[in-house]
Write a structure and sequence with these properties.
elongated; two-stranded parallel ribbon; 12 helices; mainly alpha
Length: 258
Protein backbone atom coordinates (compact mmCIF):
# COMPACT_ATOMS: atom_id res chain seq x y z
CA UNK A 1 0.00 0.00 0.00
CA UNK A 2 1.22 3.55 -0.72
CA UNK A 3 1.96 5.12 2.66
CA UNK A 4 4.47 7.85 1.80
CA UNK A 5 5.32 10.23 -1.00
CA UNK A 6 8.69 11.67 -2.00
CA UNK A 7 10.07 14.68 -3.83
CA UNK A 8 12.32 13.61 -6.68
CA UNK A 9 14.23 16.89 -6.46
CA UNK A 10 15.03 17.36 -2.77
CA UNK A 11 14.20 13.81 -1.58
CA UNK A 12 11.78 15.12 1.02
CA UNK A 13 9.47 12.39 2.39
CA UNK A 14 5.84 13.37 2.92
CA UNK A 15 3.22 11.28 4.77
CA UNK A 16 -0.03 10.46 3.02
CA UNK A 17 -1.98 12.81 5.31
CA UNK A 18 0.05 15.79 4.07
CA UNK A 19 -0.15 14.59 0.47
CA UNK A 20 -3.93 14.67 0.67
CA UNK A 21 -3.67 18.37 1.55
CA UNK A 22 -1.18 19.19 -1.22
CA UNK A 23 0.38 17.07 -3.96
CA UNK A 24 3.43 19.33 -4.11
CA UNK A 25 6.61 19.29 -2.02
CA UNK A 26 6.30 21.77 0.87
CA UNK A 27 10.01 22.71 0.48
CA UNK A 28 10.52 23.17 -3.27
CA UNK A 29 7.05 22.82 -4.84
CA UNK A 30 7.89 19.76 -6.99
CA UNK A 31 5.08 17.28 -7.74
CA UNK A 32 5.35 14.40 -5.26
CA UNK A 33 5.82 10.76 -6.32
CA UNK A 34 4.38 7.73 -4.57
CA UNK A 35 6.90 5.88 -2.43
CA UNK A 36 5.85 2.32 -1.70
CA UNK A 37 7.68 1.13 1.38
CA UNK A 38 10.00 -1.82 0.84
CA UNK A 39 10.50 -4.36 3.59
CA UNK A 40 12.51 -7.55 4.01
CA UNK A 41 9.32 -9.54 4.32
CA UNK A 42 8.58 -11.61 1.23
CA UNK A 43 5.12 -11.75 -0.26
CA UNK A 44 3.78 -15.27 -0.01
CA UNK A 45 0.72 -17.09 -1.25
CA UNK A 46 -0.23 -18.24 -4.71
CA UNK A 47 -2.72 -15.46 -5.37
CA UNK A 48 -1.74 -11.88 -6.18
CA UNK A 49 -3.60 -9.36 -4.03
CA UNK A 50 -4.99 -6.60 -6.21
CA UNK A 51 -4.52 -2.95 -5.26
CA UNK A 52 -6.19 0.23 -6.46
CA UNK A 53 -3.86 3.04 -7.54
CA UNK A 54 -4.18 6.32 -9.33
CA UNK A 55 -1.91 6.57 -12.39
CA UNK A 56 0.28 9.18 -10.70
CA UNK A 57 0.78 6.89 -7.69
CA UNK A 58 2.27 3.98 -9.63
CA UNK A 59 5.89 3.37 -8.63
CA UNK A 60 7.56 1.00 -11.09
CA UNK A 61 10.61 0.26 -8.93
CA UNK A 62 8.55 -0.74 -5.92
CA UNK A 63 6.18 -2.88 -7.96
CA UNK A 64 9.18 -4.64 -9.50
CA UNK A 65 10.61 -5.22 -6.04
CA UNK A 66 7.34 -6.84 -4.97
CA UNK A 67 7.25 -8.95 -8.13
CA UNK A 68 10.77 -10.30 -7.71
CA UNK A 69 10.19 -11.09 -4.02
CA UNK A 70 6.89 -12.91 -4.45
CA UNK A 71 7.07 -16.54 -3.31
CA UNK A 72 4.86 -19.56 -4.05
CA UNK A 73 3.35 -17.79 -7.02
CA UNK A 74 0.62 -19.32 -9.19
CA UNK A 75 1.65 -18.35 -12.71
CA UNK A 76 -1.30 -20.00 -14.45
CA UNK A 77 -3.26 -23.24 -14.75
CA UNK A 78 -2.50 -24.03 -11.12
CA UNK A 79 1.26 -24.14 -11.71
CA UNK A 80 3.05 -22.81 -8.62
CA UNK A 81 6.72 -21.84 -8.57
CA UNK A 82 8.49 -21.29 -5.23
CA UNK A 83 10.12 -18.07 -6.44
CA UNK A 84 9.96 -15.76 -9.42
CA UNK A 85 13.57 -16.62 -10.27
CA UNK A 86 12.68 -20.33 -10.47
CA UNK A 87 9.84 -19.47 -12.86
CA UNK A 88 12.15 -17.40 -15.04
CA UNK A 89 14.71 -20.21 -15.01
CA UNK A 90 12.08 -22.71 -16.20
CA UNK A 91 11.03 -20.33 -18.95
CA UNK A 92 14.57 -19.88 -20.20
CA UNK A 93 15.19 -23.61 -20.17
CA UNK A 94 12.10 -24.04 -22.35
CA UNK A 95 13.40 -21.36 -24.70
CA UNK A 96 16.68 -23.25 -25.13
CA UNK A 97 14.80 -26.46 -25.91
CA UNK A 98 12.55 -24.92 -28.55
CA UNK A 99 15.26 -22.70 -30.02
CA UNK A 100 17.06 -25.94 -30.85
CA UNK A 101 13.89 -27.56 -32.22
CA UNK A 102 13.12 -24.49 -34.37
CA UNK A 103 16.68 -24.05 -35.67
CA UNK A 104 16.74 -23.21 -39.42
CA UNK A 105 18.47 -26.46 -40.34
CA UNK A 106 15.60 -28.48 -38.81
CA UNK A 107 12.69 -26.70 -40.47
CA UNK A 108 12.66 -29.08 -43.45
CA UNK A 109 10.98 -31.83 -41.38
CA UNK A 110 7.43 -30.48 -41.47
CA UNK A 111 5.85 -33.37 -39.58
CA UNK A 112 8.24 -32.92 -36.66
CA UNK A 113 7.90 -29.14 -36.81
CA UNK A 114 4.13 -29.44 -36.60
CA UNK A 115 4.46 -31.59 -33.47
CA UNK A 116 7.06 -29.32 -31.86
CA UNK A 117 5.10 -26.15 -32.57
CA UNK A 118 1.91 -27.65 -31.16
CA UNK A 119 3.80 -28.60 -27.98
CA UNK A 120 5.36 -25.14 -27.72
CA UNK A 121 1.91 -23.57 -27.67
CA UNK A 122 1.07 -25.38 -24.42
CA UNK A 123 1.77 -23.63 -21.13
CA UNK A 124 3.02 -26.85 -19.54
CA UNK A 125 5.84 -26.80 -22.10
CA UNK A 126 6.59 -23.09 -22.63
CA UNK A 127 6.01 -22.14 -18.94
CA UNK A 128 5.16 -18.64 -20.13
CA UNK A 129 1.81 -18.13 -21.85
CA UNK A 130 -1.45 -19.86 -21.00
CA UNK A 131 -3.75 -19.02 -23.91
CA UNK A 132 -1.78 -19.40 -27.13
CA UNK A 133 -3.07 -22.88 -27.94
CA UNK A 134 -6.57 -21.44 -28.40
CA UNK A 135 -5.78 -19.60 -31.61
CA UNK A 136 -2.31 -20.87 -32.44
CA UNK A 137 -3.30 -24.45 -33.18
CA UNK A 138 -4.88 -23.34 -36.46
CA UNK A 139 -1.38 -22.72 -37.83
CA UNK A 140 -0.65 -26.47 -37.76
CA UNK A 141 -2.92 -26.82 -40.80
CA UNK A 142 -0.14 -25.16 -42.83
CA UNK A 143 3.21 -26.37 -41.39
CA UNK A 144 5.14 -25.07 -44.40
CA UNK A 145 3.98 -21.56 -43.53
CA UNK A 146 5.17 -22.09 -39.95
CA UNK A 147 8.57 -23.14 -41.28
CA UNK A 148 8.80 -20.09 -43.53
CA UNK A 149 7.83 -17.77 -40.68
CA UNK A 150 10.34 -19.29 -38.26
CA UNK A 151 13.07 -19.01 -40.88
CA UNK A 152 12.22 -15.34 -41.38
CA UNK A 153 12.09 -14.54 -37.67
CA UNK A 154 15.63 -15.87 -37.22
CA UNK A 155 17.08 -13.97 -40.17
CA UNK A 156 18.98 -11.10 -38.52
CA UNK A 157 19.95 -9.69 -41.91
CA UNK A 158 16.33 -8.50 -42.21
CA UNK A 159 15.26 -5.58 -40.00
CA UNK A 160 12.92 -6.38 -37.17
CA UNK A 161 10.29 -4.01 -38.61
CA UNK A 162 10.28 -5.93 -41.89
CA UNK A 163 10.24 -9.34 -40.21
CA UNK A 164 7.25 -8.44 -38.06
CA UNK A 165 5.42 -6.74 -40.91
CA UNK A 166 5.90 -9.68 -43.26
CA UNK A 167 4.98 -12.15 -40.52
CA UNK A 168 1.77 -10.35 -39.57
CA UNK A 169 0.67 -8.64 -42.79
CA UNK A 170 2.86 -10.02 -45.57
CA UNK A 171 3.55 -13.21 -47.47
CA UNK A 172 4.84 -15.05 -44.37
CA UNK A 173 1.60 -14.44 -42.46
CA UNK A 174 0.26 -17.66 -40.91
CA UNK A 175 -3.44 -18.11 -40.04
CA UNK A 176 -3.68 -18.41 -36.25
CA UNK A 177 -0.48 -16.48 -35.52
CA UNK A 178 -1.08 -12.88 -34.47
CA UNK A 179 1.26 -10.43 -32.76
CA UNK A 180 1.17 -12.20 -29.38
CA UNK A 181 2.31 -15.59 -30.69
CA UNK A 182 4.68 -14.13 -33.27
CA UNK A 183 6.55 -12.00 -30.72
CA UNK A 184 6.51 -14.87 -28.21
CA UNK A 185 8.28 -16.92 -30.89
CA UNK A 186 10.76 -14.06 -31.35
CA UNK A 187 11.33 -14.00 -27.59
CA UNK A 188 11.77 -17.78 -27.47
CA UNK A 189 14.33 -17.65 -30.25
CA UNK A 190 16.21 -14.64 -28.84
CA UNK A 191 15.09 -13.65 -25.35
CA UNK A 192 18.04 -11.30 -24.91
CA UNK A 193 16.92 -9.03 -27.73
CA UNK A 194 13.18 -9.33 -28.34
CA UNK A 195 10.32 -8.80 -25.91
CA UNK A 196 6.73 -10.01 -26.07
CA UNK A 197 3.98 -7.78 -27.44
CA UNK A 198 0.52 -9.01 -26.47
CA UNK A 199 -2.61 -7.50 -24.93
CA UNK A 200 -1.07 -7.48 -21.44
CA UNK A 201 2.02 -5.67 -22.73
CA UNK A 202 -0.11 -3.11 -24.53
CA UNK A 203 -2.34 -2.39 -21.53
CA UNK A 204 0.52 -2.34 -19.02
CA UNK A 205 2.74 0.00 -21.04
CA UNK A 206 -0.22 2.36 -21.25
CA UNK A 207 -0.75 2.03 -17.49
CA UNK A 208 2.93 2.89 -16.93
CA UNK A 209 2.58 5.89 -19.26
CA UNK A 210 4.95 4.33 -21.82
CA UNK A 211 2.64 3.60 -24.78
CA UNK A 212 4.17 3.34 -28.26
CA UNK A 213 3.71 6.18 -30.67
CA UNK A 214 0.85 5.91 -33.13
CA UNK A 215 2.62 4.30 -36.06
CA UNK A 216 0.40 2.83 -38.77
CA UNK A 217 2.86 0.17 -39.90
CA UNK A 218 2.76 -2.81 -37.55
CA UNK A 219 6.47 -3.55 -37.74
CA UNK A 220 7.27 -0.01 -36.62
CA UNK A 221 4.87 -0.38 -33.69
CA UNK A 222 6.64 -3.53 -32.53
CA UNK A 223 10.06 -1.90 -32.86
CA UNK A 224 8.84 0.92 -30.62
CA UNK A 225 7.29 -1.49 -28.09
CA UNK A 226 10.45 -3.58 -28.03
CA UNK A 227 12.54 -0.47 -27.48
CA UNK A 228 10.39 0.50 -24.48
CA UNK A 229 10.61 -3.03 -23.03
CA UNK A 230 14.39 -3.02 -23.40
CA UNK A 231 14.63 0.42 -21.82
CA UNK A 232 12.53 -0.74 -18.87
CA UNK A 233 14.77 -3.80 -18.49
CA UNK A 234 17.85 -1.55 -18.36
CA UNK A 235 16.22 0.76 -15.82
CA UNK A 236 15.33 -2.16 -13.55
CA UNK A 237 18.64 -3.97 -14.19
CA UNK A 238 16.92 -7.10 -15.39
CA UNK A 239 16.16 -8.98 -18.63
CA UNK A 240 13.27 -9.25 -21.06
CA UNK A 241 11.97 -12.54 -19.64
CA UNK A 242 11.56 -10.90 -16.25
CA UNK A 243 9.98 -7.89 -17.94
CA UNK A 244 7.39 -10.14 -19.60
CA UNK A 245 6.58 -11.67 -16.21
CA UNK A 246 6.45 -8.18 -14.71
CA UNK A 247 3.93 -7.08 -17.36
CA UNK A 248 1.75 -10.03 -16.33
CA UNK A 249 2.21 -9.22 -12.63
CA UNK A 250 1.21 -5.57 -13.01
CA UNK A 251 -1.85 -6.53 -15.06
CA UNK A 252 -2.92 -8.84 -12.24
CA UNK A 253 -1.86 -6.55 -9.38
CA UNK A 254 -2.86 -3.02 -10.28
CA UNK A 255 -6.33 -1.67 -10.88
CA UNK A 256 -6.30 1.97 -11.93
CA UNK A 257 -8.71 4.35 -10.32
CA UNK A 258 -9.44 7.94 -11.31
Amino acid sequence: MVVEFECVRCKNIVPVEQYELSKFCPDCGTFLRARRIKTNEKRTGTKIVQIDLRPEDINVESLFYEYTHFTNIDVGQGKVFPTVSSWVSARKQAYLEYKEKFAPEKLHDLNQLKKDYRKWLLFKNNHSWTTYQRSGTKATETPLKIANLLFLLQDETVSIEERVSRGLDGKEKVPGIANGILTALLHTLNCEKYGVWNSRTKDTLKLLRRPPRGFQEIGAIYKEVNSKLNKLARELKTDLTNIDGFMWYISKKVRVIK
